[in-house]
Amino acid sequence: MSDTQTVISDVKLFIERLKKELPEVFGGPAENAETEAGKVLYEGKLYPARIHLTPDQEEGVDFDGSSFDVYLQSRQTDPNVLVDQWLRNKANEVLRTQTAQWAQKMEVQYNNITIKNQQSLWASCSAKKNINYTYHIIKMPTAIRDYLIVHELAHLVHMNHGAEYWQLVAQYSPDYKNHRRWLNDNRGAVFAALDLKYTESEQASESQPAPFAKGTPSEAAPADTETAQMPSAEKTPDK
Known about the structure:
2 domains; 8 strands; alpha/beta; Zincin-like; 7 helices; single chain; disordered C terminus
C-alpha cells in the first residue's frame, strides 16, 4: 500500500471513530443505539421488537423467546425486510420438519413442499402429491399450524372434503372446527404486513400487526406478549 493510501485509510478510520463518538455532530446513529420498534406476530403471540443501531456488527435478527432484537448498521436498512426474511426461513425449517413428522404418523407420503407468500390460501395439496404452504403459517399457534398440516396430508388419502375426509382429519386434529374458526377470525392479523419503525427512545413506536379477533388474545399475557387463544365455535366454513 502506498503512503498516500495509508494516509487516506487512517483518515477514514479517524472520521468513522468521530462519527461514533460524536453522533450529534455528524448526524449519524450512536453505536449500539436502541429503540422499541413495534411488535412481531410469531407462533400465536405478539412479541416486542427492539432495533439496535450497531454499525460494526453484521445485520440480522435474534429471538430469545421473549422478544425480537433487530440489528441494523444504519437507519437506511428496513427492519421489516430482515424480520420478514427471518420468519420465512423459520417457516421453511418448521413446516418441512413437521410435515414429515405428521406424514409418518398418518402413514402417508407426499412428493414436494413449496413455501410461498400466498395471500389467498393457507395451504393446498395437488393431485401430484405436492403441498404448498404460505409462510405466514409460522405466525399461528402451534395447534393451528398442526391442523393445517393434517388438513393437507389428509388430501393424500381423500382428494375432497367429504365425510370420510373430515373423519380422517378429526382422528389427528379433534378440535379442527375450533381451529378453522380461529383461521377465519384472525386472517387479517396473520396476513398483516410488518410495521416496525426506528424512532428515538422517547418516541418509541406503538405499531403492531392488525389486532386479533375479539376474544382471541389474552388481555394480560406474560412476558409482554399477547397470546392467541382458541375460540369456541360450532359452525365453520371450509378452508
